[in-house]
């Protein structure tokens, strides 16, 4: 499986909404769009939009994230009026240096801008690392990752980067899939420390929160500390002396 490097946003929420912003960031001549779907607590899904730039020979590809969305707006081919499309149409689309986006169904669109989908949380780089580490510990990569080339006609697969991405929909026991055997929090914490010895190891609570965002655990409430209280006890005869 080919790995990629995500361009960080210095811990800030992702604010980019256009393909042009992603292109300008790296001044690249070509890119591929990948949509990762995640299920929200409400039961709805939202698409995590990633723009992938091929690295130089032997280097990791770069990924620029846009705001999560279920729809995007764009000008279709020579049209002068913007239209609204479902976000899944962008999955596997190719982008040139001018921002023209070529969809997998043969159409092309201009000035792509996603319509942000409000999320109850944002997945940080640390959240994603914890989720990916947990999947690795369960040996569930074949189930949880899919190829960018999936669904692309064989004659055109060579033009699509040979990358695999996390498909959040596969984490849940749906469509006949059994539940995943989630390791204990202390086991995940120990494995994180082993794999990333130069980094601060997240707490078990942080690990639990990250897994809950992906639907791998039920959210846990932190215990409240009990407030001190006084109780009046009856006086004994000895106390009165």
Please specify the SSE layout and strand pairing.
Elements: E1 5-6, H1 19-26, E2 30-39, E3 45-53, E4 62-65, E5 69-76, E6 82-86, E7 94-96, E8 101-102, E9 108-116, H2 125-137, H3 141-144, E10 145-147, E11 164-166, H4 185-195, H5 204-213, H6 237-240
Helix pairs in contact: 2-5, 4-5
Arithmetic mean of pLDDT = 79
**Main beta sheet: strand number and arrangement?**
9 strands, mixed
Structural class: alpha+beta
Q: Low-confidence segments, ≥5 residues, pLDDT <50?
A: 224-241
What's the count of strands? 11
Instruction: Identify the overall geometry.
Output: elongated
Please give the domain count: 2
How many helix segments?
A: 6
Helical fraction = 10-25%
Distance between the termini: 82 Å
- β-strand percent reads 15-25%
Spatial order of the strands forming the largest sheet: 1-4-3-2-7-8-9-5-6
Keywords:
single chain; two-stranded antiparallel sheet; 241 residues; alpha+beta; 21% helix; 11 strands
Tell me what the structure shows:
Helix 2 (125-137) packs across helix 5 and helix 4 (185-195) packs across helix 5. The protein has a 9-stranded mixed sheet, with helices on one face. A two-stranded antiparallel sheet has the order 10-11. The protein has 2 domains: 5-116, no CATH class; 123-139 and 180-219, no CATH class. The chain has helices spanning 19-26, 125-137, 141-144, 185-195, 204-213, 237-240, and strands spanning 5-6, 30-39, 45-53, 62-65, 69-76, 82-86, 94-96, 101-102, 108-116, 145-147, 164-166. It is elongated, with a radius of gyration of 23 Å. By secondary structure, the chain is an alpha+beta fold. The protein has 6 helices and 11 strands.
């Amino acid at each position: 499986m080919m790995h990629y490097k995500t361009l960080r946003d210095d811990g800030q929420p992702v604010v980019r909404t256009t393909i042009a912003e992603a292109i300008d960031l790296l001044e690249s001549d070509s890119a591929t769009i990948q949509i990762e779907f995640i299920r929200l607590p409400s039961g709805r899904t939202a698409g995590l939009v990633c723009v992938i730039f091929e690295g130089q020979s032997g280097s990791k590809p770069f990924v620029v994230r846009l705001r999560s969305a279920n729809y995007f707006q764009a000008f279709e081919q020579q049209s002068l009026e913007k239209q609204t499309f479902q976000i899944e149409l962008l999955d596997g689309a190719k982008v040139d240096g001018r921002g023209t986006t070529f969809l997998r169904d043969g159409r092309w669109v201009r000035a792509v801008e996603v319509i942000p989908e409000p999320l109850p949380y944002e997945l940080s780089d640390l959240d994603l690392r914890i989720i990916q580490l947990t999947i690795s510990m369960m040996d569930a990569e074949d189930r949880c990752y899919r190829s960018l080339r999936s669904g692309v006609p064989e004659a055109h697969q060579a033009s699509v980067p040979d990358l695999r991405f996390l498909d959040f929909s596969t984490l849940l026991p749906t469509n006949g899939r059994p539940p995943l055997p989630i390791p204990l929090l202390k086991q995940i914490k120990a494995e994180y420390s082993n794999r990333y010895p130069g980094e601060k190891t997240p707490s078990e609570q942080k690990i639990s929160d990250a897994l809950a965002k992906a639907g791998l655990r039920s959210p846990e409430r932190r215990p409240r500390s009990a407030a001190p209280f006084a109780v009046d006890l009856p006086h004994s005869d000895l106390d009165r002396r």
